[in-house]
Amino acid sequence: MKRLAVLGHPVAHSRSPAMQNAALAELGLDDWNYEAIDVAPDEFEDRVREMAAGEFVGANVTVPHKGAALSVADELSEVAREVGAANTLHFEEGRIQAYNTDAKGLLSLLPGPVEGKRALVLGAGGAARAVVWALVRSGASVDVWNRTALRSQHLCEDLGGAPVGEPTQGDYDLIAHTTAVGLSGEDPFEELPLEAEGFRPEQLVVDLVYSDRPTALLEAARERGAETIDGLAILVAQGAASLRVWTGQDPPLEAMRRAVRGGEGPR
Ligand code: ATR
């Protein structure tokens, strides 16, 4: 048996097991299995070392372990090191390798080049770091807003981009939302420096929060004619890149999209 898992806390609602098991089945990898494992922060490192010494081939790592995933690794990919967070671990001969596929996953979904475009990133956590890294590396001019200003300042010192206190929504070609707002039903227009009426048609709006229905943020953006990328598309893109790391095979994107969207076609 070759085992894979997503490690998080909490992790019960993750769609990664459904998505990755559908992908493994599609590839005919019948002796592989992907599960969700809830790991408390103080158990994370021991658990990963145990997994690396056992049947596990690798893991995805989600909130709140993306920083710890870097420290436990024996080797870091260049992207994981630069981003300062890892969402994918690969165990080879007992060694732990860390990758960050969030950044490249986002880049693979952008409809066109972002060089010279103005981007606003909301948030300063692990997800924000991957997004800022990807956009800065692609030549966008990136502003970063965060509820706690000190964190956006630190992020920009590390990765580039400029902290912004009161962003003007209409100025941006791309707006990427990476905070936890909306995960538990919070109103994005209460918690974030955005207005529902403030989007415009030429904008691209990305929401990393995923849910079955379009989030309030993306619904408002679409109503104003903006283009959108939702959190499920991002989940598939990063998961596909992780699957390539573990199996070396081309990921079956269509099967993965169907699995995360509950058997329906892409929306
Ligand atoms: P992740 O690794 O998923 O990015 P994280 O590091 O816990 O998770 O970051 C969560 C992000 O959501 C942070 O930017 C956080 O803002 P703070 O740095 O001020 O804590 C943001 N966030 C969470 N709840 C929020 C809220 N109600 N309003 C605004 N931002 C919020």
Q: Into how many domains do the coordinates divide?
A: 2
Helix content: 25-40%
Counted by DSSP, the helix tally is: 11
- Say which CATH homologous superfamily of the largest domain is assigned: Leucine Dehydrogenase, chain A, domain 1
CATH class category name of the largest domain: Alpha Beta
List segments where confidence is low: pLDDT < 50 over at least 5 consecutive residues.
none
What name is given to the CATH topology of the largest domain? Rossmann fold
Name the overall outline. globular
Number of strands: 12
Written overview of the protein:
The chain has 267 residues and is of the alpha/beta class. The protein has 2 domains: 2-100 and 233-261, Leucine Dehydrogenase, chain A, domain 1 (Rossmann fold); 104-229, 3-Layer(aba) Sandwich (Rossmann fold). The protein has 11 helices and 12 strands. It has helices at residues 16-26, 44-53, 68-72, 78-83, 102-109, 126-137, 149-159, 188-191, 216-223, 231-247, 253-260, and strands at residues 2-8, 32-38, 56-61, 75-76, 88-92, 95-99, 118-122, 141-145, 162-163, 174-177, 204-207, 227-229. The strands form 2 sheets. It has a 6-stranded mixed β-sheet, sandwiched between helices. Strands 9-8-7-10-11-12 form a 6-stranded parallel β-sheet, with helices on both faces. α10 (231-247) packs across α11 (253-260). Bound molecules: 2'-monophosphoadenosine-5'-diphosphate. 2'-monophosphoadenosine-5'-diphosphate (ATR) binds next to α6.
